[in-house]
Specification:
3 domains, 38% helix, globular, disordered N terminus, binds flavin-adenine dinucleotide
Length: 460
């Protein structure tokens, strides 16, 4: 066994996982003169063409952009972003209707390639001169008493002595498993709730060198129990994702032949099928992914081990916030380092308790958003409430902001957005009861309810 790395300087951090959160955190810590070792089980994606993992592209929103700005990487990232101004709803007759996300030009989200984003962060981390990235290092064991982690590459076994570990190793985190062994009541402290729906990624290729459909939108084909979505890529293709029950009458389980897949797409997604020339090949070759919500009451062990990102709080992808939340974790952590003079003993429990209830809130909102995306967006009452929410935001900007906007365009803690969103929903329901048109909504009642039930929004 070789001893790969030994700590020498005092400000040492070991990160497990060089995905999105691990790579960003390395950059932010390097800026604070930490010596950072990052262990990543996959090969270096900048040298070997590997899939960056689940989901080829991701929606990046304000919460994710602020940490990238703090890391000084936005100038490299901006050129690879495609803005999406709203949801383009495709009904079952092939009609399209754009539902805008926000009310101003700035209120947009961005489609970004997971792999390209990760590569930029890796480059930036290495350029700092303070970060060592160790690839092909699948951490298999963490010895908390001896302060050692163990991994093997294709030839040898290695160990690395650590001072402090940050587990940024995603939903299936080995760091979380090590943490579980340190606590007694594992079942009540850590849970993984699988979703009974899975997903499959497909591609609309570009057409005659151009996008096949409108590029500046997130496309949704809502079909009640399931849906198809599409996000634009820089190369003018679209990554298309089918979300569908794993089992049951209409499910991944029953789509088990070329004929059934073709018939399913003809019935529900006829317009999209025309843009998928090799549907059957893609359907067979591309894996069916699983989705789950991970919740942990314990994010740390003393000041030695801390979880961030999906390792602590994997959420289902329907609010497009998993990465954004993971990036926000990184920024919150280093903000606390700055304000508490690098006192990790104080910071780690403080950080964990601050982020835990926010992570729980986005986990719940993400689950709720699946119903909204696959079903509610087609509903007239939903559209009336959305229109009214925008009107209320215009008239009471300090008290009422639509929940989607609070999550995607603001920096209000997720838990506040969740709480305020529930109150706002009740107000919207009361105001639209028996109403079909926004012109007949009682705006005096609206003012009374809002000022009675909602405090003024205070945002940092
Ligand atoms: P990961 O990105 O999973 O990175 C973990 C890293 O750790 C990986 O590189 C992995 O190889 C490495 N690793 C794991 N185990 C070990 C080990 N034992 N040793 C060493 N290395 C290890 N989020 C959004 O914000 N917007 C979206 O639009 C969005 N869309 C999504 C769509 C889908 C279908 C899915 C599944 C997720 C989506 N997400 C989205 C969520 C987002 O992908 C995650 O929240 C984000 O990747 C979390 O980053 P992370 O760094 O915590 O984990």
């Amino acid at each position: 066994m070789s001893s790969a790395t030994k700590p020498s300087a005092t400000k040492q951090i070991t990160i497990i996982g060089c995905g999105l959160a691990g790579a960003l955190l390395a950059v932010l810590l390097a800026k604070r003169n930490y010596q950072v070792s990052v262990f990543e089980k996959r090969p270096d994606m900048r040298k070997i063409d590997i899939s960056a993992g689940r989901s080829i592209n991701l929606a990046l929103a304000n919460r994710g952009i602020a940490p990238l700005e703090a890391a000084g990487v936005m100038s490299e990232i901006k050129p690879i972003l495609t803005s999406m101004v709203g949801r383009m709803i495709h009904d079952d007759k092939g009609n399209q209707n754009l539902q805008k996300y926000g009310q101003t030009e700035q209120e947009v989200i961005y489609s970004v390639s997971r792999g390209d984003l990760n590569k930029i962060l890796m480059d930036k981390a290495e350029q700092s001169g303070h970060v060592k990235l160790i690839f092909d290092a699948d951490i298999s064991k963490i010895d908390v008493n001896e302060n050692k982690i163990f991994y093997s590459d294709s030839e040898n076994s290695h160990e690395h002595e650590f001072q402090r570990i940050i587990g940024a190793d995603g939903a299936g985190s080995i760091t979380r498993k090590a943490l579980q062994q340190l606590y007694d009541d594992v079942e009540s402290e850590f849970s993984t709730e699988p979703l009974d729906h899975g997903y499959k990624e497909l591609t609309f290729p570009s057409q005659k060198g151009d996008y096949a459909i409108e590029p500046h939108a997130l496309h949704i084909w809502p079909r009640g129990e399931f849906m198809l979505i599409a996000l634009p890529n820089e190369d003018k293709s679209f990554t298309v994702t089918l979300f569908l029950p794993q089992q049951g009458k209409t499910s991944f389980e029953t789509l088990d032949s070329e004929e059934k897949v073709a018939q399913f797409f003809n019935t529900y997604f006829a317009d999209a099928k025309k843009l998928l020339p090799d549907l059957n090949r893609q359907f067979v070759e591309n894996p069916t992914g699983k989705l789950a919500t991970v919740r942990c009451n314990r994010w740390h062990w003393q000041d030695k081990i801390l979880l961030i990102g999906d390792a602590a709080h994997a959420v289902v992808p329907f609010h497009g916030q998993g990465m954004n939340c993971a990036f926000e974790d990184c920024l919150e952590l280093v903000k606390q380092l700055d304000s508490e003079d690098d006192n990790w003993t104080k910071i780690i429990p403080q950080f964990a308790s601050l982020r835990k209830h926010n992570a729980d809130a986005i986990a719940d909102m993400a689950l709720e958003n699946y119903i909204e995306m696959r079903s509610s967006v087609r509903d007239k009452k939903y559209l009336l409430k959305k229109e009214l929410a925008f009107k209320l935001e215009q008239q009471f900007p300090h008290h009422f902001i639509p929940r989607y906007s609070m999550v995607m365009f603001h920096h209000l803690p997720y838990s506040d957005a969740y709480k305020r969103g529930k109150i706002q929903q009740l107000i919207l329901e009361q105001l639209t009861q028996d109403q079909r048109d926004i012109t007949t909504v009682d705006m005096k009642l609206a003012a009374r309810l809002i000022l009675q039930k909602l405090t003024a929004i205070i945002e940092n």
